[in-house]
Write a structure and sequence with these properties.
A hairpin with a 2-residue loop joins strand 2 and strand 3. Helix 1 runs parallel beside helix 3 and helix 5 packs antiparallel against helix 6. By secondary structure, this protein is α+β, with helices and mostly antiparallel strands. It has two domains: 103 residues, Orthogonal Bundle (Butyryl-Coa Dehydrogenase, subunit A, domain 1); 125 residues, Beta Barrel (Butyryl-CoA Dehydrogenase, subunit A, domain 2). The two termini are 34 Å apart. The strands form two sheets. A four-stranded mixed beta sheet has the order 1-4-5-8, with helices on one face. Strands 2-3-7-6 form a four-stranded antiparallel beta sheet, with no helix packed on it. The protein is globular. It binds flavin-adenine dinucleotide. Flavin-adenine dinucleotide binds next to strand 1 and strand 3.
Length: 282
Amino acid sequence: MDFGLSGRARDHLDRLQDFMDARVYPAEPVYAAQRRELAALGREHHVPPVVEELKREARRRGLWNLFLPDATDPAHGLSVTDYAPLAELTGRSPVLAPEATNCAAPDTGNMEVLHLFGTPEQKHRWLRPLLDGEIRSAFAMTEPDVASSDAANIATRIERDGDDYVVNGRKWWITGAADPRCAVMIVMGRTDPAAPAHRRQSMVLVPMDAPGVEVVRALPVFGYQDQHGHCEITFTDVRVPAANLVGEEGGGFAIAQARLGPGRDASTTACAPSARPSGRWS
Ligand SMILES: Cc1cc2nc3c(=O)[nH]c(=O)nc-3n(C[C@H](O)[C@H](O)[C@H](O)COP(=O)(O)OP(=O)(O)OC[C@H]3O[C@@H](n4cnc5c(N)ncnc54)[C@H](O)[C@@H]3O)c2cc1C
């Protein structure tokens, strides 16, 4: 088996290395200083401006949405093995480089879910601005009351009521939900408790500003707060249109499995099996 880099991977890697050396590593102390300034103003979950500068520069250099094959330009369609060394490199500046290149979790997994399973309307409303780095998103699966490493245990209720779904439950460790740019969550919950274990779950899109969504707190990790936050969130009679269902009812567990293959972060993405979507999104 040939583990050598393809010409396309080599080209991206060289240009990414140049971007890292010229822009990303020098921005690390700037980021730290800006975070301190924001924290002093009580805005520790606001993004430091240097991140948005890096995003513009990465996009200008054609280093954008590298995780998604055929995202908007076939010239950027990278395979898993093409992407792996790029993810390894961005992982050397894990706070800055993945977001600068629009390859940061949890948006990568969410974009892939929408790319694979979203309706045209869902893609227009949520995937397009995510691909453009205009908003951020969260993936709300884990719950304090159940062993959530097995997604079949997830207990949040998603109940059909006329043309809507109504969501009730409690989640925690929801990455990204404290960032003011976070506009939408993919929420996993039970639509049919009586169905076989792996057909009970579904996923719905819940806007962050939907009535009944409450971000209770951002949990610290080893005593520190990440900029985007890992949040405890309650859902109390949160009502969303039935058109916000992702994929089919009862398909949530399967989507979670598809998402976790490529969707975690730079390091796990590099090791993931070939579960990446193919085909073109438009
Ligand atoms: C920094 C951070 C960010 C995160 N971001 C997100 C996010 O964005 N969205 C999200 O939904 N979640 C997120 N998580 C949550 C994470 O995915 C879960 O913590 C993880 O899946 C484990 O689930 P759990 O905490 O419920 O642990 P549990 O499932 O309770 O597992 C605890 C331990 O028990 C073991 N165990 C569980 N069940 C069994 C069993 N039946 N038999 C034997 N052993 C068992 C597990 O292997 C593990 O060692 C995040 C967590 C962290 C720390």
